[in-house]
Amino acid sequence: MRCRSWRLSPNHHSPLCEPGTCFRCWRPCRNVLGDPGSPNPGGVEWEDATDGQERCRECAYLLAHHPLAWVRMALISEPRPVPQVISVLSEDGDFTVALTAQWHQHHQPDPFDTDPFDSVWR
C-alpha cells in the first residue's frame, strides 16, 4: 500500500492552494507504507497507516510541522488522526492549533466502546 498524502512542492506559488487542487503547489507522495527503510523524521516513532490512515510517517511529520496553521488544523479534523500528530500539535506555537489538539486528546471517543452513550442512558 502506498501513501496517499499530498506534499508541498518546492515550486509552489503564493497564495498556497488547498492540497490536491493544484499540481504546482502540491504533489502526491506515493511512499510505500510500512517500509522499514523509510525515514524516521525528527527522531520520533511515527506510525504508518493506523486505523485506515493512508499517510506515511514522513508525510505525517511534515504536515504536523507545516508553517500554515490551517494545514495543521486539517490534520486534527481528520476522522482518525494519528496519536503522535495530536500529541505534537497539542504543543503547537499557534494557540488555536494547540487548544484544538488538546481538546481532541481529551474528548476523543474510545474506539473499543460499543455504545458511547451507554453511560447517558443508565
What would you note in describing this structure?
The chain has 122 residues and is mainly alpha-helical. It has one domain (6-109). Helices cover 33% and strands 5% of the residues. It contains 5 helices and 2 strands, in the order ββααααα. It has helices spanning 57-64, 69-76, 83-89, 95-107, 118-121, and strands at 6-8, 26-28. It has a two-stranded antiparallel sheet with strand order 1-2. α2 packs parallel to α4 (95-107) and α3 crosses α4 (95-107). It is globular.
N-to-C span: 43 Å
Largest sheet: 2 strands, antiparallel
The number of E-state strands comes to 2
User: Nearest-angstrom radius of gyration?
Assistant: 16 Å
Percentage of residues in DSSP E strands = under 5%
**Helix proportion:** 25-40%
Global structural class: mainly alpha
Order of helices and strands: EEHHHHH
Strand order of the largest sheet: 1-2
Low-confidence stretches: none
Count of all domains: 1
State the shape.
Answer: globular
Number of helices: 5
What is the secondary structure topology, with strand pairs?
Blueprint: E1 6-8, E2 26-28, H1 57-64, H2 69-76, H3 83-89, H4 95-107, H5 118-121
Antiparallel strand pairs: 1-2
Helix pairs in contact: 2-4, 3-4
